[in-house]
Write a structure and sequence with these properties.
Largest sheet: 2 strands, antiparallel
Structural class: alpha+beta
Helix content: 10-25%
Oligomer: single chain
CATH architecture: 2-Layer Sandwich
Bound molecules: iron/sulfur cluster
C-alpha cells in the first residue's frame, strides 16, 4: 500500500492531517508530507478517507 501526493495541487488544508496526524503533516512549505510510508491493512480505511476528503484530490492510494 502506497500513498502518493500531487504537490502541484496540494494546497495545505491539512484535512488529511486531521484524519491521521501520525501519517500526514503540513510543512512550513505549505505542502503535506508523509511521516511514514509503512502502512498496514489497519490504516487502509483512514487512508481512503484522506483520499476521499482531500478537496484538491492531491492524494492517491495504490496497492
Ligand atoms: S487534504 Fe489534500 S490539499 Fe489538504 S493538505 Fe492534505 S493532501 Fe494537501
Amino acid at each position: 500500500m502506497k500513498i502518493t501526493i500531487d504537490t502541484d495541487v496540494c494546497t495545505g488544508h491539512g484535512i488529511c492531517e486531521s484524519i491521521r496526524e501520525d501519517i500526514f503533516e503540513v510543512g512550513d512549505d505549505g505542502l503535506v508530507h508523509l511521516l511514514t510510508t509503512e502502512f498496514t491493512e489497519d490504516d487502509r480505511e483512514d487512508l481512503m478517507d484522506a483520499v476521499d476528503q482531500c478537496p484538491t484530490q492531491a492524494l492517491r492510494l495504490e496497492d
